[in-house]
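Subject: sequence -> structure tokens, single chain

Hey, anyone have a minute? Need the predicted structure for the following. Not urgent.
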Amino acid sequence: MIKMILDLDTGVDDGMALAYALGSKEIDLIGVTGTFGNVYTKDGVQNVLNIMHMCNVNDIPVFAGESHPLSKDNFTRLEVSARIHGENGVGQVAMETSPREKETKSAVDFLIESVKKYGKELVIVATGPQTNLATALKKAPEIKDMIGRVVIMGGALTVPGNVNQYTEANISQDPEAAKQLFESGLDVTMVGLDVTQRSTLTNADTQRWRETESVPGMTYADMVDYYITQNIGVEGCYLHDPSAVINAVHPEYFTMLPMHLTVVTEGEAEGRTIGDSTKLRDPHPNVKVCIGVDSRALVNDLNETLLALFQNNK
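Reply:
Had a minute. Here:
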């Protein structure tokens, strides 16, 4: 099994990514860390706790992470995030509040301690801004040579961004953190819009979840049906964050391009993920960029894993 930490800004698609990790027989989820982005950090952390409570998972610790980008001292949630994910981050669906609380330790300290404990065995999947990871690397630079794989949902290389023509949402929230991560020398895989927009989930899929007649199945169906209504012009919804978690388990579903990647941190193209022109002759690329995906395999894997989770919680 893969030892994994999920670093989430828990909106609806983060919620699907979490459900996949909880339901997968190939993942040993050792902890969840929260960050800002789709929601404020505290709200995302509470969403994680509530989802786990609903799924009868009470032994995986949850940690609150950074609440704002590296270069700022605050964060204001975007109106578009509230629209797409709902004011509460989970499609306006009400869930029972978990009696469990977040851990007192910070997400950054948990990341550092986990890397030192598990080393190359550990895979970190980040589906929000990369602020927690960048902060951990700054606080404990020695972990750079200990970390196994890092998989992020973010960026766009061969397609336009979804914030503007250059920039994808997670990278745009903290370009400096993404730049530091990409240039750190870590084994990073970028699961960006190039592939996440090729896989979609439809109301027919959520109806299967609903038919389990389980609380998690019906709740997730309501969450994702809301999310689908906000994806205007798309028949269904894109599978942004679930694609990153699935990549960590099944990289064979993806076509990846090794390259030296960096992030533009100023000007009109701030947040753009692009090849580093200063390293064209460097034979050791720092990032594997996903540029193709077997969407049928990915969607089937997600559906079957979530169905099994829901059926086990009837």
